[in-house]
Amino acid sequence: MHSTLFHIPTRLWEWPLFGQGLLLALWAVAGGIGLVVAWRRSGAREALLGLGFPLALAGAMILWLLPALDDGAGVPVRGYGVMLLLAAAAGTWLSIRRGRRAGYDADTILALGLEVFLWGIVGARLFHVIEYHDQFFPPGRSLLSGLPGVLNVAAGGLTVFGSIPTAALAAWRFAVRRGLSLPRLADCIAPGLLLGLAIGRIGCFLNGCCYGGPCDLPWAVRFPPDSPPWLDQAARGMIPAALVGARPWSLPIHPAQLYATIDAAILAWLAVAFTPLAKRDGAVFALTLTLHPISRFLLEMIRIDEAPALGTPFSISQVVSIILLALAAGLWWWISRQPPRRPWDGTPDGPGPTAAGKFAGRTF
Question: Considering the entire predicted model, what is its pTM?
Fold first, then answer.
């Protein structure tokens, strides 16, 4: 576990870096240039739709969030946040490589990846905050005072399944706006999403969240005092009260986060290997939507950080996994009724028989 990698100083020479400082000025210049370039290339509407929300979110973070994160030593750079950025970069890289074969240029995949990533983060964070609302808004804490903790995504706290509705909606809107085939786009980015998940779970390991239960296997791991596993074991009485004051490390537990990393990496490889075998657009994504919930359901048996939910013996992630499997079955049925896909030979995708505008109103 290494939750904080280093601190960023809040001042550069005599100038403030965050808030109304140098970073905000850099944001204004870079954002203005980006909008002008996008405006000339795609028009005002597409420029605002593609860059408006990301720029507004980045500006709000620079102006309000980053100053609020100053812990006296500066703004901490969290291992979780760094791995999240690496996950986005790696997933985008793989999607661009696949996109060239599927008929999408790098700009299209970058624009799609940015929208899907940001809206996926929003959904994953909302799901986590709702699930653990007592941690963010305990009795006596106002909505305003709890907001910095909600926005501090870099400190950890994302539920992957929460990202699915918002990311899917963002991808659908993107495909409709540009007249592209949503199933073909989904096949293009599905392995990249899994690769990003694999790297992101390393961030969970650095942060200490998403931990497993007690383990006596050779690869069991211990976490330091005040880490999530340590606090959980102390609350359960697994660490004797007489030893809590001495602050020993946690009892050995399963490195569930690293299991999830290996699982996601294997699924990403399977999705890539299945691509040339797929007969219809959407099949690669459907395979991902089938296999990931199964492996997640099984991995949840090892994790102990989530209590049973909704009156069932299953965690909320296991319940969602069951729902996703049902949706995957419906998606396979829909795909079986579609025409064979066009070859991945680099031919540009666009309005046509498989364009998003053609099937945007259909259920799948």
Answer: 0.80
